[in-house]
Amino acid sequence: MTPVLKAAVFSDTHSNTALMLEAIRRYRPDVVIHLGDYERDAAVIRREFPEVALYNVCGNCDMVPTAPADDLVPLGPVKALITHGHLYDVDWGDYSRLGYAALERGASIAMFGHTHRALNEDFGSVKLLNPGSAGRGREPTWAKVEVYENGAVSTQIAPL
User: Fold this and answer.
1) Domain ranges within the chain, ordered by starting residue
2) Is the preceding peptide bond at 38 cis, omega within 30 degrees of 0?
3) Whole-angstrom Cα distance, residue 99 to residue 114?
């Protein structure tokens, strides 16, 4: 089955954008999602790939944010709640607040960053996805999301 939409998801780039940009070139997504830290890194994506749809939120290190703290975005036939995660108390491994927020807003997937740890698991009917850190750490990661016509969602954590 061929996906109707491919999304590349990044978080916590912290101005280290080279690997992220290379992943976008290779994957050729329909949508790029940047989950904060730093908001200016989303501007780099916009400049390098003006033809690709971009959704972004601010992170806790964005001192004068212009992007929203969270957003509900369309990904083909499904909706995704995107946020950096710090306002949903994800620091300690309890993702219930984020999972319930996604359920309440009708999202099939909740994407967040902040912890610098990749996560790909289910919370009831909601997929929780943290792409890890694309800019800091020994093993930078990102996430591939594929959405199908029937609303099925496939997610994968990938090394940069």
Assistant:
1) 5-159
2) yes
3) 16
Q: What is the DSSP letter of 4?
A: S
Domain 5-159 sits in which CATH superfamily?
Metallo-dependent phosphatases (3.60.21.10)
pTM of the model: 0.96
Q: Which residues have a Cβ under 8 Å from the Cβ of 5 and sit 6 or more positions away?
A: 30, 31, 75, 76, 146, 147
Residues 6+ apart with CB under 8 A from 156: 120, 143, 144
**How far is Cα 70 from Cα 57, in angstroms, rounded to an integer?**
6
pLDDT band at 62; cut points 50, 70, 90: confident
* Tens-digit pLDDT profile for residues 84-106: 999 999 998 999 999 999 999 99
Chain centroid to CA 79: 13
Q: What's the pLDDT score for residue 58?
A: 96
- For 144, the token pair is 């591939």
Give the max Cα distance, the chain.
43
Residue 146's pLDDT is what?
A: 98
